[in-house]
Amino acid sequence: MTPLEKLASLPEAGRFLRDGITLDQLLQQARSQTDVEAARQVREARERLLGEVAAETRTVYSDVWSLARSCAE
After folding, report:
1. Are residues 25 and 47 in the same domain?
2. One domain, residues 42 and 24
């Protein structure tokens, strides 16, 4: 059972969703993509996010050792 299937099986599942999002919208989106396409989108989003974090971290810590020292303090 996927997380979406579990959510859909709950009574009053809509109350667990953000305002403006419906269970029908989520189910329609899930049917519109294959598992491979959805996984690719998640991977691309994760790479963008981690790239942004790395760019911000580089401006504060010039190398991995200065980052490690600051975490140890």
Report:
1. no
2. no
The answer to whether 27 and 8 are in contact (CB under 8 A) is yes
Q: List, as one string, the DSSP characters of 19-70.
A: TT--HHHHHHHHHHS-HHHHHHHHHHHHHHHHHHHHHHHHHH-SSHHHHHHH
Q: Report how far residue 36's alpha carbon sits from residue 42's, in angstroms, rounded to the nearest whole number.
A: 10
Q: Are 46 and 52 in contact (CB under 8 A)?
A: no
Residue 11 per-residue DSSP state: T
pLDDT in tens, the chain (73 residues): 889 999 999 999 999 999 999 999 999 999 999 989 989 999 999 999 998 888 887 777 677 777 778 887 7
Query: Do 73 and 40 share a domain, yes or no?
Result: yes
